[in-house]
Write a structure and sequence with these properties.
CATH superfamily of one domain: Periplasmic binding protein-like II
Helix content: 40-55%
CATH topology of one domain: D-Maltodextrin-Binding Protein, domain 2
Number of strands: 15
Radius of gyration: 23 Å
Strand order of the largest sheet: 10-7-11-6-12
Low-confidence stretches: 1-38
Structural class: alpha/beta
Strand content: 5-15%
Largest sheet: 5 strands, mixed
Length: 500
């Protein structure tokens, strides 16, 4: 088995090396050099040693491991195709099977089954209620899948798992603090999840626009810790106000939640017992941030944005207002200097060969120790352990191995995708993306806010709207919707108590 594993590892590394060499215009001699560098990479070697130790302890002799989800993670990857993302999943899947003797099985839920609308949570809940052992791991959005299964007592607390180690770099560092409920963990995300690298917020800057206005690229400010919103505003002030509507806008697609979290604040607080709550009274910091940023971000001659109706829904679309399908298209066309986006947006722009740079969302103040990159729950996917799993110990081991192998295969593939064609002229990009991922934080507020405009989801929407559009109704909205959110939290607490 050791020889088979070693061959698989070497094949994966060599394939990745060939892809990188081809994309950088290298010849066969460069391929050989890249292979040596990859094999001796300290992080990869450490991961291999870690997995080898696990594999010596655990082997499941062909036991099936069944994964159910909304797609992406659950797709079968039976062969290499030359597509770097497909092949990263293929290598991970094959290596899991070789190392631990499992047989990978997956079920993709598309939303319809024999003409009947359904979803992942329906499948899993039915299995749990029937006492069937159908699925070992569930993949899906934390709101539409995770929260639904949580309140139905269909998920297992993973905080007591002995192998999953949330201190490892392949798990998101903010989870224990920001995504636990009374000290229990039901939601996991990290390198084990393919779109983990798509959801953190960032700022994109259009290189051509910067050059046109003689503005320095902000990398040096990020590195010395002085990359703040005030610094971004200072740089952008070189661009004249776009009073005609035909010039360049300073900011695009402002995201009030990304701005709030970048200051080091969140929405959820926790009491001494680890129970979440939201402040009953409007926090002064939130009021101050909303008052400062809404003036800039709602300004039609500075910012590309869509006016909302009290934070709920849009009254207009980009095509109607700006003549473009979206702000990303405007940014690609050089009409926006700084664009609020996610790394997933950056990857899409890279496919169109747009010349841009990527930096973390600025700090609220230079005295902050870290940058903070907000991850939108609605753009995220998590993994969950259902109560219909066959073997808890096996799931514990395989989840940890998935995280380690995600760090080994999926992360490098994503970096290659987002950095494709950039290495020659932009050596700072990888360092910036590292900062974005390392500073990524989640907040479970959407879990009890529902996301629906007719439920406490209005609480989250009202906060975002107050910062990126209009702060005038923040106090009233906060008073009403925070009460609704806290009522939802109490319902979740009662559900949790019923688990015992």
């Amino acid at each position: 088995m050791y020889k088979k594993i070693l061959s698989l590892i070497l094949a994966a590394v060599m394939t990745a090396s060939i892809l990188v060499s081809c994309k950088s215009g290298g010849d066969s001699s460069n391929t050989s050099s890249s292979t040596v560098e990859a094999v001796t990479d300290p992080e990869i070697l450490a991961i291999n040693d870690y997995l080898s130790d696990l594999a010596e302890q655990f082997n499941y002799d062909g036991t099936s491991f069944t994964y159910v989800g909304e797609g992406g993670q659950t797709a079968e990857h039976e062969e290499e195709t030359g597509n770097i993302e497909n092949d990263a999943l293929y290598f991970r899947q094959r290596e899991l099977e070789e190392l631990f003797g499992i047989t990978w099985q997956s079920k993709k839920i598309t939303g319809h089954d024999d003409g009947v609308t359904t979803n992942v949570s329906v499948y899993v809940k039915e299995s749990v209620m029937a006492g069937q052992k159908d699925y070992d791991l569930v993949y899906g959005n934390p709101i539409s899948v995770g929260a639904v299964l949580f309140v139905e007592n269909c998920l297992m607390d993973v905080s007591g798992f002995s192998t999953v180690n949330l201190e490892k770099e392949w798990w998101n560092a903010s989870l224990p603090e920001r995504y636990s409920f009374a000290g229990r963990m039901y939601f996991l995300t990290g390198a084990a999840v393919t779109n983990y690298f798509d959801d953190p917020s960032c700022i994109l800057f259009n290189k051509a626009a910067l050059e046109d206005y003689g503005i320095d690229e902000p990398y040096s400010f990020v590195k010395d810790g002085s990359w703040t919103f005030d610094k971004m505003f200072e740089l952008a002030s070189t661009v004249p106000l776009n009073t005609s509507g035909s010039g360049t806008y300073r900011y695009g697609n402002p995201n009030g939640l990304a701005i709030l979290f970048a200051h080091g604040y969140g929405i959820t607080s926790f009491d001494d017992e680890g129970n979440p709550y939201v402040e009953a009274s409007l926090p002064m910091y939130l009021s101050d941030i909303a008052d400062k940023y809404s003036v800039i971000m709602s300004d039609d001659v500075q910012s590309v944005h869509l006016k909302g109706l009290n934070g709920m829904g849009h009254q207009e679309d980009y095509n109607e207002k700006y003549g473009y399908e979206g702000s990303e298209e405007m940014f690609a066309d050089g009409r926006i200097l700084f664009q609020f986006a996610t790394t997933g947006t950056a990857a899409d722009l890279r496919k169109d060969e747009v010349l841009f740079g990527i930096v973390p969302v600025p700090k609220g103040d230079a005295s902050q120790e870290s940058y903070y990159s907000f991850a939108d729950n609605w753009s995220s996917s998590f993994i969950y352990v259902p109560r219909c799993t066959k073997d808890i110990q096996m799931v514990d081991v395989i989840i940890e191995a998935m995280g380690a192998l995600g760090q080994k295969h999926i992360k490098p593939a994503y970096y290659d995708k987002i950095l494709k064609g950039r290495s020659i002229y932009d050596s700072d990009s990888k360092e910036m993306i590292d900062i974005v991922f390392e500073s990524k934080i989640y907040d479970m507020a959407d879990m009890y806010a529902g996301g629906n405009i007719h439920t406490p989801g209005r609480f989250i929407s009202a906060i975002k709207y107050a910062i990126d559009d209009d702060s005038s109704s923040l106090a009233t909205n906060y008073f009403v919707y925070s009460k609704m959110a806290n009522r939802e939290i109490e319902k979740l607490k009662k559900s949790l108590e019923s688990f015992d």
